[in-house]
Specification:
The structure is a homodimer. By secondary structure, chain A is an alpha/beta fold. Chain A folds into 2 domains: about 30-115, Leucine Dehydrogenase, chain A, domain 1 (Rossmann fold), CATH 3.40.50.10860; about 140-265, NAD(P)-binding Rossmann-like Domain (Rossmann fold, 3-Layer(aba) Sandwich). Chain A has 10 helices and 11 strands. A 6-stranded parallel β-sheet of chain A has the order 1-11-8-7-5-6. In chain A, strand 5, helix 7 (about 170-180) and strand 6 form a beta-alpha-beta unit. Chain A is globular and about 50 Å long. In chain A, about 50% of the residues are buried. The interface of A and B includes residues 126, 129, 158 and 198 of A.
Chain lengths: ~290, ~290
C-alpha cells in the first residue's frame, strides 16, 4: 500500500489564479499591488527564498521591493525602514525576513507591521486577532497547511488533529485555524511523553518540529493524512521533511512531499494576501 | 473513594499576601496602586462581581474607580473613557466589564487597553504576546487555573492535559499557559466527536464549557485532577460548575469546587496584577 502524495503545486496554482483575478481588478482600478521584503542577513537560504518571492511577484504583476539593509543593520535602521513601510499607502504587504542581526529583537520589530499589511502573519497582534476571530492574516505557513488540506478535501470538522511543534510560525497559529474549523486539536512537542499515543489516534497529523525522520509508521494511524512542514537538510545536502516518508507511506493514506508540498504553497499565499490587502484598502476612501 | 477538594481560598490568600507585599513597597515609594473598572450594564451578576472587586481592592489598599457609564452608553463614550484611562499614568489596571450595550463592539474596545494595564488579559494583543512568550497578562481566569494547579503542586510538564472549551477568556489562553509549562494540550469543544476518549487519558482535565453536569465519571481517568471553571445557575438558583461533582469525585483524585474554587482566585489575581503593573512602571523614569 502506498499513500497518495498531496502535491503543493496544484494548490499553489489555484491560489495564483485567485491572485491573478485580484491583480486584474486592482490594475483596472489603477492600483499596483506592492509587497516589501526587509532583509538584514547574508544567509544563503534566505537569499534564495527572497529571490523566489521576487520572482513570483514579478510573474503575478505585483511590485516587490527588496530592502536589503545588510547583515550589519542595527535595530534603529530596521525600525526606521519598517515605520516608513507601515506609513506608506502604496505598500500593501510587509515581510520581515529572518534571521536578523545578533542583538536585534525580532519580537519588537514585527510589532511595527500593521496587521492589515502583515501578509506573513508575524505580528503577535495578528495572532491575537486570529484567535479572537477578528480579521487577521495567520502565519503564512500555518495557513498553507489549511490550504493544502482544503484543496484535497480532507475533512476537519469534528476530526482529531495532532500538531507536532508549538512554534509561533506553525504549531500555535495552526491550532487556532484548526479550532476555527471545529477540529479537536492536540498540540504535541519535544516534551510530550508518548507522542505515538497522541498521533496514532488522529485522522490528520501535522508535523512541524524541525527534526528529520521524527515521524515514522508507528506514529500514524491506518488511513490517516500526514502533513509534513519540516524543512531539514540531510547529510547529502537534500531537503527533507520531518516525516520518514517511506515509513509513513506504508500506513498513512496521504502525505505531503518535501520538497513540493506545503512550502510550495506559502509563497503563493503571500502574493494572494498582498492583493487582498490592496483590495481591502482600495475600497476605503483615502 | 472521595476526591480531595482543591479549595480556592488558600490560593487566593497566598496571592493576597504577595499583593500586600507589593502594596507596602508601592506605598513606601509614594505610589497608590489604582485599578479602574468600566461598566455599562444593569446586569445583576455583573454588579455583584464589580462590588466584590471594589471590596477586595479596598481591603488591599488599592484604589478602585468604578466608572459606571450606564446601560445606554454608546461606543463613543466607552472609547473616550478607555482612552482617558489608558493615558492616565495614575491608573495601573483597566478592566472592561461585560456584557456591553447592544451594538457596541467589545473586540474594538478591549484593544484600547494597553497590554501593561490589561490586568484582565482581554486585549488580543495581550493574547498574542502571551503566545509569543513576551511579557503579558494572560486572561485572568486562565491564569487562575494555573495558580490553583501550582498551589496544590499538580505536575504539568510532560503531562497530558485536556481543556474543554475554546473561549478567549479560558480555553485558548489556558492552552498557551499549559504549553509554556510543557504540558501536551488537547483542546476539546462542542464539536469534539468523542469527548471521553480525550479526557479519560488526561492527567488533568479543565472544563470551561458553560454547561452544568457536562463532565461525569465516565469522562475522567482514575486518579486524574479536574478543574471546574463553569459557573452555571441551576433550577434552584444555586451556582454550579460544569462537572457533576458527585459523579466525578468517585474517580478523580482531586476536584476544584464550585463555588469556592477557581472563581475565588480570579479577583485576587486582578489585585496582584494591578500592583505588578504599578511596580513595573514605578521603576521606569517618568
Amino acid at each position: 500500500m502506498s499513500a497518495q502524495l498531496l502535491q503543493g503545486l496544484p494548490v499553489a496554482r489555484a491560489l495564483r489564479e485567485r491572485t491573478a483575478q485580484n491583480v486584474a481588478q486592482l490594475h483596472g482600478d489603477g492600483i499596483v499591488p506592492r509587497v516589501a521584503v526587509v532583509v538584514a542577513t547574508d544567509n544563503e537560504s534566505t537569499g534564495w527564498y527572497v529571490r523566489s518571492i521576487a520572482q513570483q511577484a514579478a510573474k503575478a504583476s505585483i511590485h516587490c521591493d527588496v530592502l536589503d539593509l545588510g547583515a550589519q543593520a542595527d535595530a534603529a535602521e530596521l525600525t526606521a525602514a519598517l515605520r516608513a513601510l507601515a506609513a506608506d499607502d502604496q505598500v500593501h504587504g510587509i515581510i520581515l525576513q529572518t534571521p536578523l542581526p545578533a542583538g536585534v529583537d525580532a519580537a519588537q520589530l514585527v510589532r511595527l507591521i500593521p496587521p492589515e499589511k502583515d501578509v506573513d502573519g508575524a505580528n503577535p497582534l495578528s495572532f491575537g486577532r486570529l484567535a479572537a476571530g477578528m480579521p487577521a492574516f495567520a502565519a503564512a505557513t500555518a495557513q498553507a497547511v489549511i490550504e493544502v488540506l482544503d484543496h484535497y478535501r480532507i475533512p476537519l470538522a469534528g476530526e482529531d488533529v495532532a500538531v507536532i511543534g508549538r512554534s509561533m510560525v506553525v504549531g500555535k497559529p495552526l491550532a487556532q485555524l484548526l479550532l476555527q474549523r471545529d477540529a479537536t486539536v492536540t498540540l504535541c512537542h519535544s516534551r510530550t511523553s508518548d507522542l505515538a499515543n497522541h498521533t496514532r489516534r488522529a485522522s490528520v497529523v501535522v508535523v512541524a518540529a524541525g527534526r528529520a525522520g521524527l515521524l515514522r509508521s508507528e506514529h500514524v494511524g491506518l488511513g490517516s493524512v500526514v502533513v509534513d512542514v519540516g524543512t531539514n537538510v540531510d547529510d547529502q545536502g537534500n531537503l527533507v521533511g520531518d516525516a520518514d516518508a517511506a515509513s509513513v507511506q506504508s500506513i498513512a493514506r496521504a502525505l505531503t512531499p518535501v520538497p513540493g508540498g506545503v512550502g510550495t504553497v506559502t509563497t503563493a499565499l503571500l502574493m494572494l494576501r498582498t492583493t487582498q490587502s490592496a483590495l481591502e484598502r482600495s475600497v476605503v476612501p483615502a
